[in-house]
Amino acid sequence: MQDVDYAGLVDDALDRLKAEGRYRSFAELERVAGTAKATLCEADGTTRNATVWCSNDYLGMAAHPEVIAAVAEAATYGAGSGGTRNISGTTSMHVALERELASWHRKEAALLFSSGWVSNYTALAVLGSVLPECVIYSDANNHNSMIEGMRRSGATVRIFNHNDAAHLESLLRAEEAPRPRVVAFESVYSMDGDIAPIAELADVARRNDALTYVDEVHAVGMYGPEGAGIVAREGLESEIDIVQGTLGKAVGAMGGYITGSARLIDLVRSYGTGFIFTTSLAPVVVAAAHSSIRHLRSTDEERIALHSRVATVRAAIEAEGIPTLPAESHLIPVILGDPTRCRQAARLLLDHHGIYVQPIDYPTVPRGTERFRITTSPLHTDADEQALVAGLADIWERLELPRVGELPVPISSGD
């Protein structure tokens, strides 16, 4: 029998990524607390200062004084939680945070997970597998975590056109036999920055006797009363059965969660392997998230500063003729349309302007729509903004990248 050349097979797979310009390298960062700055550590041991324009710490809460103080206090409980929630990992801190999350979203109950990805994957896997003959109706642009959860469930999955309530309704009405149904979509789509017509989708779901599941990971903290998200902004809390969110973006910590009726939350808690077999969040993380949410519920200061900065940055970028996708959210997709040029542009921005943005390519976005996703924060200054726009304009000229009107930009989806 001939031996399998595992090393060669692995190298071939990696070489294919490199040939396509899609091989990803990580930036080693040392963030400067309370600013949008970081020190980047290169492979050769050298360092450089940079302004970060691609962080998901949208509101700068990771280093907020109240959050840091809560972390310091919780450190007295130890570094880890000690086990899964079913063994010894349920503390009064976890319970208190879940009650806060349920209150935030005007729901009966909440359930914590180790990440937003795990909460989507687990919840949809449970709904699709436990509800007999379940059909899940999924927006075409849904996140990988939602797609993987649906696949894991074994349920029938029907894809409706992105943000298209009429297409969703046609699919729901085409179902001949009465079966449990779940309509799953996001509120803010992270790669295009567009916002779902939640009221229309929820109305279609209700008229066709389907549960609604909304991913709000790119909305919680930044929209609506007390920062509870787009569902809350639209006054639709009673129309959505499960709201999923993350603690790792605007909240500034880590972890994920779902909120909903006590019955639905108990179902996921009891059947969800992604919850049952995972060590619970560390006390310092729970404390950080809880402190951050209490702060964000008490003031609009960070939200106002964020959206003000988004408006000026977007206007300045577009004034240079640099292609962006139109979006009403805080996300600014800047389109390059080629994976190699995208990585080259990112490197030049860092080398010549001290600006760090991460290139985004397939499979996160469709081929031909490679991009930067510019994210602002209240920590960015006017000087940071001016440097970003000047840097982008310089790189567009250096690389002779297409300006507005020169690059066809199909709407896409992503991570």
Average predicted local confidence, pLDDT: 94
Write down the oligomeric state: single chain
Low-confidence stretches: 409-415
Terminal Cα span: 43 Å
Shape: globular
Number of H- or I-type helical stretches: 14
Mind telling me the C-alpha Rg?
22 Å
Q: List how many beta strands DSSP finds.
A: 14
How large is the share of residues in beta strands? 15-25%
What profile does the largest beta sheet have?
7 strands, mixed
Portion of residues within helices: 40-55%
Which structural class matches the secondary elements?
A: alpha/beta
- The succession of helices and strands, N to C, reads HEEEHHEHEHEHEHEHEEHHHHEHEEEH
Strand order, biggest sheet?
A: 4-10-9-8-7-5-6
Architecture overview:
The protein has 415 residues and is of the alpha/beta class. The chain is built from 14 helices and 14 strands. It has helices spanning 6-19, 65-74, 92-104, 116-130, 144-153, 165-174, 198-207, 230-233, 262-271, 273-276, 283-298, 301-319, 339-353, 382-398; strands at residues 28-31, 37-41, 47-52, 109-113, 135-139, 156-160, 181-186, 211-215, 242-246, 256-260, 332-335, 355-356, 359-360, 371-374. Strand 5 (135-139), helix 5 (144-153) and strand 6 (156-160) form a beta-alpha-beta unit. The chain starts with 5 loop residues before the first helix and ends in a 17-residue tail after the last helix.
